[in-house]
Amino acid sequence: MNDRALDRPWMLIAEREIVTKLRDKTFIGSTLVMLVIVMAAVIVPALLAGSGGPDRIAVVDDAGVKVVQQASAIEGGDGYEVTRAADRPAAEQLVTDGDVEGALLPGTDGYVVLGKDRVSSGLESRLREAVVNVGMERNAGAAGLTPTELRAGTKVELELLKPAPLPDVVATFVNIGLALVFYMTALGFGMMIAQSVVQEKESRVVEILAAAVPIRALLWGKVLGNTALALSQIVVIAGASVVGLVATDQLDILKVVAPVAGWFVVFFVLGFVALAGLWAVAGSLATRQEDLGSTTLPGQMILMIPFFFSVFAGSSAKTIASFVPIASSMAMPGRMLTERVPVWQPLVAIVLLLIATVLIVRLGARLYERTLLQTGRRLGYREALAIKPS
Amino acid sequence: MLSVAGLTRRFGEQLALEDVTFDVVPGRMTGFVGANGAGKTTAMRIILGVLAASAGEVRWNGGPLTQTTRRDFGYMPEERGLYPKMKIRDQLVFFGRLHGLDPDRAAERTDKLLERLGLAERATDVLETLSLGNQQRVQIAAALVHKPIALVLDEPFSGLDPLAVDAMVDLLREEVTPEVPVLFSSHQLDLVERLCDDLIVLARGKVVAAGPVAELAAGPSLTYKLVVDGDAGWLRDVRGIRVRDVAGATALFDVEHDGVAQQVLQQAVTRGPVLEFGPERVALSDVFREATR
């Protein structure tokens, strides 16, 4: 008659929680929508920045070929590809048809860059620089100078005092993205936890559950089942964005994000579990779905304030936020992406978060045990704390 | 055997149960009756561990009832409840496993019960799409799916039509083996009288009567009914009996023992034809009224 579920009833509760969600069309739908948004966020900017391959430039003579090669060298590799056109009308045709990004034609005193409705500033400046280089090398020969002599003292080097792992724009983007993933997942799953608790209260099934297994096992089953679901959802989304990054040749971002991913998972799980305990209490304080609006308010605040803080606050405020439990789940992974953070900092933040999680979950379990079977009316947090164990 | 000893429960100032003690004997159906608010549900919830007692304890075979043992109990709460949006088969398998069955056994028991309840074809339907009567059937199946070692049913028959009650009773008789104590509360006294072997009457949180139904109904003395052809008024002069009521030809009287009744009968026959004679059972509702007064 016995099996292992007897010793670990929370596993059964977690299993039911997971199976129910996986069959829930709304849950599957929202996951797909999130997936599409993330894929779009990864792929669309890359597509807008230009399709993967090198830009094609139409030229009509060998001198043009040389300029385009020079431009490619400046770009650092094979940025541009030469397309030979017989004459100007042929080159114009290629440009208007969109077969080439632009055309480089000999002009009266140098060259003409031909574009359809616009020429990207990157392409224009590269070609301009290449034309100058090629031209100056030729002129230098005429003036009896070597190209090196001609360029002496004109080199400009860039030096950064505080180099960041990622370019500024990308870093901000990834930072907001990570915080948003935590915020949305914690809020979405939080509401689902609260709803599933209040559903059990509303349908009175909780009475049978409580008679069969300890109330703490009910709480743990719910929290762990939903944590597992949330984490898998994130893994699926992360997997999709990796595929997207690889497909669009943005491996450089991946190289920076990958080492932080492990930290993110730790911060995520701890922060999520702490909040999940609170959300379950929000559900057990309510007696009907309509009560959730007010009982989940503290949970929403605990998420929303740190979210805006960790995304929009100044850097010193962000540093503080990255140590404050729950806020740290959103702020610390972002900081680790945008600046060099000594390794002791995330470790300390994790220890603080761990302590907070244990305390919050213990308090949550106590409130949950006291309020779950109170089906009379909605309770407040203060009231719940005052209830003596029954 | 399931017993409660000295069970007391306070809700604030209010005393819901006061020193309640009774046994629920295996193999016998024990009816739990009492007016609304007498404390039946409170006592049952304490037995199931859903509510804590202020004092006293629940015992199982002489020892304290543990969480592990309690997990093998079957419980049908007063306020019915299952997952409204879960398929009934999945639901019953879940409850079977929750009470410690392995998945295969839970599935096997579920299928058997659904078949027995005529719900096999609706196994994959969501609970809330079933009629209330069928939902009630699933509810009782949820209490029986794990072959409980004890059953506590709070108003199991409320809201059922007589046919459904019969079907439910048949199911209980079939499923409940002789070693299982069954406690069920009801305010349908005719039903309790028909089904129960033992009875516990609760009034304002106290046990006011307890024992086998037959004994409680018989009362402390035996009551006989006599119908003669003519006037029965002469009975008032017979010694050794207490006349309860005489109305023309019909009389009700109490005797100390059966022998006296036979003497009365002999006397009646010498006086004229006797149309009816025999012991009169007191209706349970009278016992109930008497006890809870």
From TrEMBL, chain A:
Short name of any one Pfam family annotated for the protein: ABC2_membrane_3
Task: Tell me the compartments it is located in.
Answer: Membrane
Which domain of life does this protein belong to? Bacteria
Instruction: Give membrane topology per the record.
Output: Multi-pass membrane protein
This protein's GO CC annotations? membrane
Task: Please provide the record's keywords in A-Z order.
Answer: Membrane, Transmembrane, Transmembrane helix
**Which residues does the UniProt record annotate as the domain ABC-2 type transporter transmembrane?**
26-364
Q: Does the keyword Transmembrane helix apply?
A: yes
Q: Where are the transmembrane segments?
A: 26-48, 169-193, 229-248, 260-282, 302-326, 347-365
Q: Which InterPro entries match?
A: ABC2_TM (IPR013525)
Q: Which GO terms describe its molecular function?
A: ABC-type transporter activity
Name of the protein in question: ABC transporter permease
- Give the organism, scientific name: Kribbella turkmenica
TrEMBL record, chain B:
GO function term, MF aspect, one: ATP binding
Domain ABC transporter residue range list: 2-229
Pfam families, per the entry = ABC_tran, DrrA1-3_C
- Name the InterPro entries for this protein: AAA+_ATPase (IPR003593), ABC_transporter-like_ATP-bd (IPR003439), ABC_transporter-like_CS (IPR017871), DrrA1/2-like_C (IPR025302), P-loop_NTPase (IPR027417)
Q: Which SUPFAM superfamilies does the UniProt record give?
A: P-loop containing nucleoside triphosphate hydrolases
Q: Which Gene3D superfamilies match?
A: P-loop containing nucleotide triphosphate hydrolases
Keywords (A to Z) from UniProt = ATP-binding, Nucleotide-binding, Transport
Family of the protein in this entry: Belongs to the ABC transporter superfamily.
What is the protein name for this chain? ABC transporter ATP-binding protein
Query: Per the UniProt entry, what species is this protein from, by scientific name?
Result: Kribbella turkmenica
